[in-house]
Amino acid sequence: MDKIKIVIVSGNIDDKIKIKNLLDDDDFAISAFLEYDNMAGLKIFGYKPDIVILVYDKKEGGIFELAEQIYSQQQGISIIMLSANIDVELLKTAMQYGIKQILSLETTRSELKEAVMKSYNLEKKRSSENGSIKKSRSKVISFFGGKGGTGKTTIAVNTAVTLALSGKKTVIIDADLQFGDVTIMLNLDPKNTIYELTQEKGELNIDNIKSAVALHGSGLEVLAAPKSPELSEYINEKTIALIINILRPYFEYIIIDLPPGFNDTTISAIENSDIINMIANVDIISLRNSKVCMGILEAIRQSEKVKLILNRNIDGIIGKKDFESILGTEIILCLPDDSRTILPSMNKGIPFVMGSPRSAISKNIKAYAASI
Question: Which domain holds residue 263?
Answer without folding.
Answer: 139-371
